[in-house]
Amino acid sequence: MQQYYMPVKIVRGRDCVAKSAPVFASFGKKALIVTGKSSAKNGALADVSAALFANGQQAAVYDKIPPNPTVACVREGGALARAFGAEFIVAVGGGSPMDAAKAIAMLARQDADDLFSYRPTDDVLPMLHIPTTAGTGSEVTPYAILTNDEKQTKTSISHPAFFPKVAFLDGKYMRGLPQSTAAYTAIDAMSHAMEGMLSVRAGAVTDALAAESLRLLHAELPALTAGAYTDADRDALLLAATLAGMVIANTGTSPVHSMGYSLTYFHGAPHGRANGLLLPAFFEVCAQKAPERTAEILRAAGFSSSAALADALAPLLGEREKIGDEALRAYAGKASVNKNIKNCSVFFGEEDLFRVLKNSVGV
Ligand code: NAP
Ligand code: FE
What we know:
The structure is a single chain. The protein folds into 2 domains: 9-173, 3-Layer(aba) Sandwich (Rossmann fold); 177-361, Dehydroquinate synthase-like, alpha domain. It is built from 15 helices and 8 strands. The protein is globular, with a radius of gyration of 19 Å. The protein has 363 residues and is an alpha/beta fold. The chain is 51% helix and 12% strand. Residues 136, 188, 192, 257, 271 line the site of fe (iii) ion.
């Protein structure tokens, strides 16, 4: 039996935020805008503020979300949402502000002593998400990934009430995106689509979404490699990322993400870069253990082999982090107890994970 569920209304097109003031009006009088620093420069914050202002709605702005959001920042944001009396949240930015907004929307309504063991209820402020990177797909997922210092990793908290109500997709906000962020976030999207196809929860619907996402991403490889984008490229990348988000909303991710969290936590590798470093070596092992499905996934992504995938990603990744075996063994151990292991249709034991890590880093 297969199931598919994704309750987010997707509004897409140039100036869709500015044109959607009535949509914002229906969520209440007071909004907390959760964002980082770039939205004040790329036009997204101005568009949201104008839509709210046109409706006579009040807004407070919490713009202190760092990359890889922390428990401290979501607690501060939650306290602000309560003090301000926010009735809804508008999240503007990459995966970091979009994920943080979900935890803030929950903390505005619920007390949680330990965020990572707490079981959320449905009582979460409604959210509207505006992605300004094309990668995580957080605008269509029920996941909020936070830095977990106690376990020295990143941990996903999730609940169906974390799905935003509306996602607005407009590639114009990505015009000033740094090339490294553009490339890494596109790799994250590719990773989601490919990992989703490998999930035990993959089905006909998620496969169709993943295939279209991968087709779009493959067509964007020349732009990604050149670091030169038209607005059509940005819109296509954003759509690909949202489609891949719709995949993982139902399938979850794979050990690529679990291993990647250590590269981010201990070595500062941006999330999409971490996945990109690991993806070819991961699919090389998959090709040995499940040759047919792996070939199908690589074909959907436009590659004849994991080596061809490696060749396409190499120019986007540049020089690789050098990490010793002892640390890599520790990361393999951490990844081996992540719930993603059971989610993957190909079994990855600790030795397999070590092999992937070892083949992914610099020498
Ligand atoms: P990000 O951490 O949100 O943003 C990366 C950098 O790009 C930040 O410095 C950000 O600045 C800047 N930036 C964002 N949009 C920009 C724009 N339009 N122009 C110029 N600069 C811009 O990166 P991300 O890759 O989008 O998100 C990664 C996070 O999402 C990780 O924590 C990851 O674990 C999580 N994630 C979540 C899911 C999910 O399903 N929820 C899936 C995959 C990954 P400011 O933030 O200061 O604006
Ligand atoms: Fe991801």
